[in-house]
Amino acid sequence: MFKKIISKLKCRLDRIFHSYAEHRFRLLQREDGVAAVEFALVAAPFLALLFAIMETALVFFAGQVLETVTSDAGRLILTGQAQSLSQDSFKDKVCPQAGLFGLFDCANMSVDVRAYTTFAGASLTPPPMDANGKTADTYQPGTACDIVVARVFYSFPVYVNLLGFNLADATTAGKRRLAATSVFRNEPFTGPPC
Fold it and tell me: Is the CA virtual torsion 36, 42, 44, 48 positive or negative?
């Protein structure tokens, strides 16, 4: 009698085990959620790389706009149109052009214009900046035939931080210092040629 019960129990356990193994094997062969799992693994690095590329392009674009604005401002000084302007008036002429694309905040822009007598004496070392990444404005457009170094500085915010490597400077947390320079000799707007 016990042998009969044990044999029936063994038979049922074999059927249950066989059914479980077959079901488990079928479950392992299913590929319904593979795309979702693959997307979850690839999405975060892909999006981080995409945003880093967009931010790098934005910083380069902002730098090019700043170069264009500095060149245009230098043209005002070169032709003698800006010699009668005050520092604030000159900055008011520079800033709206830079703000056309909505990239710049005029309050964070610094203008450094200095006149020299020779090209060799012209200094291109950047002026010191404060904790916010702003330098003190200087405006000395010079007179006819002077050598002028016109520079515009801006601390551009950096948002994407990819594994700690970003375009931000070590001195200004979360900002990239952009600088544009234009060096030229003023035209002889009064008197004999240079």
Answer: negative
Q: What's the full length of the chain, in residues?
A: 194
* Secondary-structure breakdown of the chain: helix, strand, coil percentages, each rounded to the nearest 5: 45, 20, 35
Query: Which DSSP letter does residue 7 get?
Result: H
3-state class (DSSP) for residue 9: helix
pLDDT, tens digit, 9 for 90 and up, residues 49-80? 888 888 888 889 989 989 998 998 899 999 88
User: 175, 167, 127: which is closest to 151 by C-alpha?
Assistant: 127
Give yes or no for a contact between 109 and 152, defined as CB atoms under 8 angstroms apart: yes
**If you ran DSSP here, which 8-state letter would residue 134 be given?**
-
pLDDT in tens, 137-165: 889 998 888 999 999 888 888 777 655 55
CB-CB neighbours of 49 under 10 Å:
12
> How much is the mean pLDDT over the chain?
80
Are 150 and 130 a contacting pair, CB within 8 Å? Answer: no
Task: Name residues whose C-beta falls within 8 Å of residue 101's C-beta, 6 or more positions apart in sequence.
Answer: 61, 65
Q: What is the DSSP string of 68-130?
A: HHHHHHHHHHHTTSSTTS-HHHHHHHHHHHHGGGS---GGGEEEEEEEESSSTT---PPPPB-
Q: Which residues pair with 183 in a beta bridge?
A: 149
